[in-house]
Every structure is written in C-alpha cells, then in structure tokens.
C-alpha cells in the first residue's frame, strides 16, 4: 500500500466520521438532555489512536460507558514498536491520562495522548503525526501518519437552593485553547471538535479548509449562550440555565483532535469547564469530585482546614514569644 492510498483512506475515514457526527450528535444530545439523571452516573473515557503504513494502533481506558464505544476497563491493540504509557490503569479512576506512540515508516514517531479529569473539569488532547518525507509511487511526497486523541467524561449534578427562592440562574463556562502546527505539505489535515452538555447543549468545531464555528443546530437549550475569543484553535463559551431546588442534571464533555499528514494538534492546555453559582445555590455530584480540584492540583481547603492552620500558626507565635522572653 503506497502513501497516497494510506492518506486517501485516512481522508475517507475522516469524512465518514464527520458525516456520522453531524447525523448522530444532535439526537444523542437531545436524548441526554431529555433523559432523567440516573443514580451514581459518572465516569471518564480516554481513547488514543495512531495510524501509519505500519498499521493501526489503539489504546482505551474507561470507567463506565460514557458514550457508545467506551468499554469499561483498559484495552490496547498495537503494532510492533508501538508503546502505551501506562500499560494498565486501575478501575474507578476519576482522572487519568493515556499516551500511545508509534514509529512512522519514514521517520519520526506519531503520538496520541488523551486526558480526562472530573476532579479538575478538564479534557486534554495531543495528536502529533510527525514523520520524515517519503515518496509515494514516485509521483508525490507526503509526511507523517494520523493520530486521534479523544477524551470524554460524564457526571450527574444535584443542585440545592439554600434559601426560599423557587429557582435560580446558573452559568456554565467552557474554554478550549491549543495550537495547530502544519508542516506545509499537501497531507496536512486537522479536525477538532468539542461537545458539552449541562443545562443545554454546546458544540464547536475547527477543520482544515472549513475554518471554525459553533456546530449550529447542536447548540441549544441554554437560556442565553455566547461563543467568543474564537480562533482555529480555541474559544470561550458562557451559557446560562435555570435550576430548581433538588434538580439533577447530566454533565457530559468530549474533545476530539484528529490530525494527519504531519500536523500537530496540541490541546494539552486545555479544554476546561466550570460553573458560576449564585450565593444561594450549591451542588453535589455523583462522582463526588467534579470541579473540586484546581488545574494545579491543589484542592480548595475546607473550613476545618483553615481552623487547623490558624491554630498551628497561633502555636508557633506563642512559642516564638516564649523563646524571646527566655533570651
């Protein structure tokens, strides 16, 4: 199989995937919004794929069936020379990362890394299709292979209104920021998509030759919504929705970075999601960890923690004063 055939097949697969997303994502999101939230409904799913003339490698880890194709557990199918890091992951994680590397036939190593964290409310995707220049039948040159990184996560939120109000307005925030680097060959291609659900449905995409834009009919359900700071490699989004006391709502987020022919799609910093709550609204999640950890890894101290810290500082101050008096 020559390089032209490989890239043509990659392009055909990409077009089929894009058509499938356009056909299916609308009904899937509608169903998710309409369905009642089930008890203990949460999980992450990370999928990394690499493809070159040497064959196709894939690795996957999931804690639950976040969406179709997410099979709980760890699995991999790799060609000779390909490596997954780590080689296995334990059950039940709420934050995990999976990297797959595969040597390319004309040099270089394709890399696909996927990360999902309910704790931090982030998704990260890195797809590098590097490779040296190679001939295809003596009629053209192209580089690299194809890498697809796809992290997803889902949870269920339960809202409480702490005063006598019958309802409240909550703001959902989404951010995507990354870089897309092209080697300038005819094989360079990229397709980025970011979907999310919480109180409404949001979708945004960017692709070679198509530019960037929200996914039109797949954005619905929010009281107000706005995409801004848009570029080929990211956006910011805010959407508002109404909650009542005791309301349970599903949360879903998925990021897909599909790059080929020498393109590098670096979205490792990052797709992030968060809530802005009015003073009289709190929430819990089925996972128990959703949005509780900062991206730097430090959790927000509980009030009791502040009390312990204050007592410790007070003790240190007393000891210092006693030492001064003794001197």
Word description of this protein:
The structure is a single chain. It contains two helices and 20 strands. It is an alpha+beta fold and 327 residues long. The strands form three sheets. Strands 1, 2, 3, 10, 13, 14, 15, 18 and 20 form a nine-stranded antiparallel sheet that branches.
Number of distinct beta strands:
20
Distance between the termini: 85 Å
Shape: globular
Compressed to H and E, one letter per element, the order equals HEEEEEEEEEEEEEEEEEEEEH
Mean pLDDT: 79
Structural class: alpha+beta
Sheet of most strands: 9 strands, antiparallel
Q: State the domain count.
A: 1
Number of helices: 2
Computed over alpha carbons, the radius of gyration is 23 Å
| Helix content percent band | 10-25%
- Range of strand content: over 45%
Could you list the spans in which at least 5 consecutive residues all have pLDDT below 50? 1-39, 135-141, 297-327
Question: How is the secondary structure organized here?
Answer:
Elements: H1 3-34, E1 43-52, E2 55-62, E3 73-77, E4 83-85, E5 95-103, E6 109-117, E7 122-128, E8 133-135, E9 141-143, E10 146-161, E11 167-177, E12 179-181, E13 189-197, E14 201-207, E15 211-214, E16 224-231, E17 234-244, E18 248-260, E19 264-276, E20 281-285, H2 303-326
Antiparallel strand pairs: 1-2, 1-10, 2-3, 4-5, 5-6, 6-7, 7-19, 8-9, 10-18, 10-20, 11-17, 11-19, 12-19, 13-14, 13-18, 14-15, 16-17
């Amino acid at each position: 199989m020559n390089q032209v055939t490989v890239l043509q097949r990659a392009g055909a697969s990409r077009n089929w995937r894009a058509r499938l997303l356009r056909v299916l994502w609308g009904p899937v999101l509608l169903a998710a919004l309409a369905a009642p939230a089930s008890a203990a409904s949460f999980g992450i799913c990370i999928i990394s794929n690499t493809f070159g003339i040497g064959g196709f490698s894939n690795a996957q880890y999931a804690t639950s069936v976040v969406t179709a194709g997410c099979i709980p557990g760890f699995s991999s199918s790799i060609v000779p020379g390909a490596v997954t890091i780590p080689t296995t992951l334990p059950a039940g994680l709420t934050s995990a990362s999976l990297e797959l590397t595969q040597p390319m036939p004309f040099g270089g190593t394709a890399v696909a890394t996927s990360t999902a964290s309910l704790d931090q409310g982030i998704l990260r995707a890195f797809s590098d299709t590097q490779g040296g220049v190679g001939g295809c039948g003596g009629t053209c040159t192209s580089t690299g292979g194809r890498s697809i990184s796809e992290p997803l996560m889902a949870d269920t939120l339960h809202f409480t209104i702490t005063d006598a109000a019958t309802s409240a307005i909550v703001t959902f925030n989404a951010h995507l920021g990354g870089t897309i680097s092209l080697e300038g060959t005819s094989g360079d291609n990229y397709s980025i998509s970011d979907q999310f659900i919480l109180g409404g449905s949001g979708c945004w995409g960017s692709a070679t030759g198509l530019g960037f834009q929200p996914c039109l009919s797949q954005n619905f359900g929010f009281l107000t919504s706005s995409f801004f700071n848009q570029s080929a490699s990211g956006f910011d989004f805010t959407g508002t929705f109404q909650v009542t006391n005791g309301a349970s709502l599903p949360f879903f987020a998925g990021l897909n970075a599909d790059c080929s022919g020498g393109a590098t799609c670096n979205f490792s910093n990052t797709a992030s999601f968060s809530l802005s709550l009015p003073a009289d609204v709190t929430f819990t999640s089925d996972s128990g960890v959703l949005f509780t950890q900062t991206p730097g890894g430090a959790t927000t101290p509980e009030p009791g923690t502040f009390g312990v810290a204050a007592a410790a500082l007070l003790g240190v101050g007393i000891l210092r004063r006693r030492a001064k008096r003794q001197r």
